Amino acid sequence: MQSQIEQFACSFKPVFIGAAAIIFYICPAQKKADMDTAKISLEEKAATRSKSAKPLLYVGMMSMVMLFAAFTSALVVRRAEPNWIVFDLPFELYISCGIIALSSLSLIYASRSAKRDNYQGVKTGVGITLLLGIAFVVSQFSAYSALVDGGMFFAGPTSNASWAYLYVLIGVHLGHLLGGIVVMIVTLINALRERYNSKESLGLELTSIYWHFLDVLWIYLFLFLLLMI
Q1: DSSP string for 41-74
Q2: How do the domains of the chain map onto residue ranges?
């Protein structure tokens, strides 16, 4: 169990790579006056920044994929042992799937609004996505509460490996999503300042890539847990 706890603590390191890459590129102010006087066009600036920002984000995402691949592989091996307990997933995890799927739809709406220079649509889409992200976090903690109420603990004399793996997988994904919420807050601030449009939307694009990745990752984890737990 000690090794599981150590893995759990170390598993949050990759979140800083992806989140830091996004925040670094969406925080700088983009004043219109500077755009007008710049020697390089806005499109060329965006292309240059994109070439460096996206690879860094993809590196962070790949590290997350390898991390969860390791956890799920370990679960498959551990499940073959005789003391593995099969149980039903908390209903709150089903709700989480619906919430995060809706959040991707609202973010798609924001991205399309930016391409049409619909600033209000961008604000609405990003704002709804942020609220749904917070709702997802609440549903995850509700799932933890349901596990505890059912006597299924992460550690202790009455704990079981099947419960511990569920805690770890939910917790690690939740940690990455909390990083995504921080990014989404910064993105919303930029959206409220009307910085995303058809010519400049790199920050929104990076946020969308990361958020949709977390969406797909959660759906994968949920289906995996549904089959294996």
Answers
A1: -HHHHHHHHHHHHHHHHHHHHHHHHHHHHHHHHH
A2: 2-228
Phi, psi of 59 (to 5 degrees): -60, -45
- The hierarchical CATH code for the domain 2-228 is 1.20.120.80
Residue 163, token pair as written in the block? 């419960």
Q: Which parts of the chain sit beneath pLDDT 50?
A: 1-13, 29-39
Q: Rounded CA gap, 163 and 85, in Å? A: 8
- CB of 138 closer than 8 Å to CB of 103: no
* Rounded Cα gap, residues 185 and 187, in angstroms: 5
**Distance, CA of 45 to CA of 116 (rounded, Å):** 20
pLDDT in tens, 84-108: 888 889 999 999 999 999 999 999 9
Q: DSSP string covering 128-179, please?
A: HHHHHHHHHHHHHHHHHHHHHHTT--SSSTT--HHHHHHHHHHHHHHHHHHH
pTM: 0.80
88 phi, psi to nearest 5 deg:
-85, 140
Residue 112 structure tokens: 């399309």
Three-class secondary structure of residue 38 per DSSP: coil
